[in-house]
Known about the structure:
Chain A has 9 helices and 5 strands. Chain A is an alpha/beta fold.
Amino acid sequence: xxxxxxxxxxxxxxxxxxxxxxxxxxxxxxxxxxxxxxxxxxxxxxxxxxxxxxxxxxxxxxxxxxxxxxxxxxxxxxxxxxxxxxxxxxxxxxxxxxxxxxxxxxxxxxxxxxxxxxxxxxxxxxxxxxxxxxxxxxxxxxxxxxxxxxxxxxxxxxxxxxxxxxxxxxxxxxxxxxxxxxxxxxxxxxxxxxxxxxxxxxxxxxxxxx
Amino acid sequence: xxxxxxxxxxxxxxxxxxxxxxxxxxxxxxxxxxxxxxxxxxxxxxxxxxxxxxxxxxxxxxxxxxxxxxxxxxxxxxxxxxxxxxxxxxxxxxxxxxxxxxxxxxxxxxxxxxxxxxxxxxxxxxxxxxxxxxxxxxxxxxxxxxxxxxxxxxxxxxxxxxxxxxxxxxxxxxxxxxxxxxxxxxxxxxxxxxxxxxxxxxxxxxxxxxxxxxxxxxxxxxxxxxxxxxxxxxxxxxxxxxxxxxxxxxxxxxxxxxxxxxxxxxxxxxxxxxxxxxxxxxxxxxxxxxxxxxxxxxxxxxxxxxxxxxxxxxxxxxxxxxxxxxxxxxxxxxxxxxxxxxxxxxxxxxxxxxxxxxxxxxxxxxxxxxxxxxxxxxxxxxxxxxxxxxxxxxxxxxxxxxxxxxxxxxxxxxxxxxxxxxxxxxxxxxxxxxxxxxxxxxxxxxxxxxxxxxxxxxxxxxxxxxxxxxxxxxxxxxxxxxxxxxxxxxxxxxxxxxxxxxxxxxxxxxxxxxxxxxxxxxxxxxxxxxxxxxxxxxxxxxxxxxxxxxxxxxxxxxxxxxxxxxxxxxxxxxxxxxxxxxxxxxxxxxxxxxxxxxxxxxxx
Lengths: 210, 604
């Protein structure tokens, strides 16, 4: 109930009706898995450096058309943080403005649900941009792989610790390492997690909750 | 995955490394990643897949009805067969959650058309698969490549027309036949019309399509018999520089054509190239080049799934030629016939695939001065070291005076070994008994071996001690599973050596001159020393353990690691593990047989 009210309120602030498609009906059995590289972990302050995303259709990760953009850093992004993400000068040669990047991303996502690892953070930082550009937070449904994973672990008690580190999930689910960790590779690995977890009970019935 | 990562992943997968940069891009642009949970049936006779699968992670099993025939792991790909022929008799089922690339059929077929090398690999694979199935019970002197017959390759059905047929009708017929080759029959003779001929003689010259076929056909069509050696067909193609050649059956009727590309793919392993290089070598330097090519040949043959004993036979043949040529190049001609250059141990048995050491010697005719050979033998050892043959730790090399002497001196030596043996002498005798003449006068070695057989007659106690070496190392009864820490098994000590030594002991007792273990087993079977069952099991087991050993050695070779005889059981697929387990139990029962037949418990 609250959810739908929020959604309506969000919709009312949409600047351009062109982006109504984001609020459209979800296509059957299609998802977008995404990952952002950012300058830090504070959505309010930090900036996006690159975005990688892939489309999932049924049991396939569509590799023919992947999404991978580098964003031109603003003045206040130090070379240091770029080094941490191993973004090379050559990557930045093809970098585009944050606005271009976000609009292309929305185009890529459409009304599909968004899958990710700690996806709330990525969505928060993307929403910071979309609010400026099209007036609304990104409205798509979120699916959190770490929650799906959590539900597949057998715990002996309510308080038992479950390690939700990305690498731990990778190892436990036997997901292949795809070379270096960049936004696109992480998005692909996350997509593989999602496909695997979907087949595992009890996740099968409960993965709809974000 | 960035395009670069995908390209890196693919280039490591045979045969994708042969794709050009552009072709690789086409490939990558037409691939998706798919996930299939355990037990998904990927394809079956009723459900042909529209994709070529490349495994990123997971395991797939291939079944022929109920029987599992193949397992596929990381970086394996399948199934070219069903994409090329649009049908399959087998079922492919996910055994462990599968994450894989899917390359769509159309792209796969395009790549095959565009890249002959890529195509060769798959066609070759098919040919080989069929051959392996055919040859399962069949073992031969020569490699399966060398003994392939014309009808072992793909004979393309051709469109046959009689003389007088209108060209237009013939072309229509050939389209129905789905072939581009038209064979014309005229007074018991055959001619051929190819696409390029139609271009040249009809299109360019603007000829009428109503002319009779014999007006443009080329006579005669060069042809071979169905049961000719493929090798001969190959030489005809190369010599005459033609693309296809007719195939006749035993009644002399034309049954189809074989294409150069199919034949080439059969011989794409360079063995013949190496062979002719050795033949043509005029200098030590030429010979070194040829010898270095051997290692690549091994890799190719292994990658094509050729059985190990075929590989070792073939490599052995080539190695032998290297030695023979070396002897001819180094030793002055007048000295060559008065001595015999021999290789011993695993080389003498023709079982050393990857050069791990060299055991060689020279036998000089009685009454001929050994000293005049010494400098040449020094040189021989130096050259072999330079070729990359590692030195023998026990210094069993012709440069060592102990392994370069007259016939009668060797006879004294063997007498001493047998009368007052110590452990070293048993090993020397074992190595010496496996000797094989590679250059000079063979008779000298035959004489020595006869002498050895005679000396050993009725020496039961000595033979029991000799055979006891078979039991030196333990053979596990089960294979360490994934839960254990130690997963390296020394395959030589646990399996290869016991089979070799046990069979060697039997061969020595039975006066068998053959040196390869497999041949010795076959003769022992003929002589009823071994039962049919045990003989077949030993040959199988020997094949399995040597295959595993070669595989792991090739990997170490590629990684630049030191070559040893360890295999890592954690890297084995399920089928391999089962085969290894079976082989160990065969080795263990063979050890019991040796103990019993040589009455070893009486001496210990």
